[in-house]
Amino acid sequence: MKNICQLLSEKDFDVICPNLLNQETPFEYSQEELAYRNFTENIGFVNASEEIKSLLLDIKDKYKKVYIVGFSVGATIAWLCSEEDCLDGIVGYYGSRIRNFVGIDPLCPTILFFPEREQTFTVDQLISSLEKKNIEIHKFYGQHGFSDPYSSKYDEKSAQEALNRMVDFLLKH
């Protein structure tokens, strides 16, 4: 997250990165399952999206444009916020739980990045259910985490291509 915040800042975007975990230190990569369980049991998608919507209300008048960029759980949270009229766009990387909220129709430009495969669902099936909506979807070589340079699933080529598409999307909208 810090890398993406830094990169976007270097491209002259103001970046706000809220701490949705309500704890000082992040989970270690080896604690991925524990981190996800903590999120689902103690925070949840609805509560997290309400926290982000509240933040959006606080900042919307301070900026010409407001976007949400989310990874994994954050991508699903961005998706849940996509019906807010104060958003100018969302970017979602491997938001696997979007599959639980396919009834949402984003009101803002939306770009989603998925890996070729996920452990818990069929990526092509989710993409197929989302293609009817007016959103941009890209599938990249690799697995969940392909854009995270600290992940064992990191794929440099896919990460760079997704990053370029994200920046182009943000500049376009």
Count the DSSP helices: 6
Strand content: 15-25%
Shape: globular
Mean pLDDT: 95
CATH domain class:
Alpha Beta
Radius of gyration: 15 Å
GO molecular function: hydrolase activity
InterPro entries: AB_hydrolase_fold (IPR029058), Dienelactn_hydro (IPR002925), Dienelactone_hydrolase-like (IPR051049)
Organism: Peribacillus huizhouensis
Domain Dienelactone hydrolase: 1-171
Polypeptide structure, described:
By secondary structure, the protein is α/β, with parallel strands linked by helices. It has a single domain (33-172), classed as Rossmann fold, CATH 3.40.50. The chain contains six helices and four strands. The protein has helices spanning 2-10, 32-42, 45-59, 73-81, 123-130, 156-172; strands at residues 67-71, 89-93, 110-117, 136-143. The protein has a four-stranded parallel beta sheet with strand order 1-2-3-4, sandwiched between helices. InterPro entries: AB_hydrolase_fold (IPR029058), Dienelactn_hydro (IPR002925), Dienelactone_hydrolase-like (IPR051049). Residues 1-171 form the Dienelactone hydrolase domain. Keywords: Hydrolase. One of its GO terms (molecular function) is hydrolase activity.
SSE map:
Layout: H1 2-10, H2 32-42, H3 45-59, E1 67-71, H4 73-81, E2 89-93, E3 110-117, H5 123-130, E4 136-143, H6 156-172
Parallel strand pairs: 1-2, 2-3, 3-4
Organism: Peribacillus huizhouensis
Protein name: Dienelactone hydrolase
Pfam families: DLH
